[in-house]
């Protein structure tokens, strides 16, 4: 898809599954299962989406999926379907790993940062050797020192080697990492979750991160129980959703089917309309 001078594409690294009750928080199963049916283990299937942005020789990758380092037990526990597709999808778009110039992790949970690195024998190497990896400083600090609640979501092998290799770039709050590409820290899912906005001055694309994982989380109270700061998520939704409608942002989600669309309000409900 063209967005002014930017070529933007969305694709999935693959499917994984999480407990449906956890994904929808206080919303009763009788409501959320109508939107997203659960399997026999009460898990809902979700894509792990990545965003590819190209502009004048720059190649920016947002998210790297679960990656190739999961054990067989982890794959079973999280219902991971098939091998990771990140490098296959990039190759299909004519992008080699050493051509990626910037990687943005919206946060460092394993399903967003697992493809940052790969194992070469006993070594852990950056998957994109020429790229800087951009993370919010607060997210980096929390990932390095997880607590009892957050420990299961962070895998140090996904991000710790980046610092040693000199590939890490820490940012604070809101920053324009390249002309027209803006990151904003939104405390909610984690302290250091960041969203991505791409704008050519006329059109804007908003990539939600896990601040709002998919279209089924558009209703204000539909907030995952994994969010560490759910009231901050709620407050952010009240600001961002009306703005996305008023300014006709193109929107993409991290855990929906890999599609672009627009948000509108219909009889007090937020609706996501896909675009071709």
Per-chain topology:
Layout: E1 2-3, E2 6-19, H1 20-24, H2 29-35, E3 43-55, E4 58-62, H3 72-77, H4 86-92, E5 102-104, H5 110-113, E6 117-120, E7 123-126, E8 132-136, H6 137-144, H7 160-164, E9 168-171, E10 175-178, E11 181-185, E12 194-199, E13 204-207, H8 230-246, E14 250-252, E15 261-266, E16 269-274
Parallel strand pairs: 4-5, 5-8, 8-9, 13-14
Antiparallel strand pairs: 1-2, 2-3, 3-4, 6-7, 10-11, 11-12, 12-13, 15-16
What do these coordinates show?
By secondary structure, this protein is α/β, with parallel strands linked by helices. It has a single domain, classed as Metallo-beta-lactamase, Chain A. Helix content is 21%, strand content 32%. The protein has helices at 20-24, 29-35, 72-77, 86-92, 110-113, 137-144, 160-164, 230-246; strands spanning 2-3, 6-19, 43-55, 58-62, 102-104, 117-120, 123-126, 132-136, 168-171, 175-178, 181-185, 194-199, 204-207, 250-252, 261-266, 269-274. Strands 1-2-3-4-5-8-9 form a 7-stranded mixed β-sheet. It has a 5-stranded mixed β-sheet with strand order 10-11-12-13-14, with no helix packed on it. A hairpin with a 4-residue loop joins β12 (194-199) and β13 (204-207).
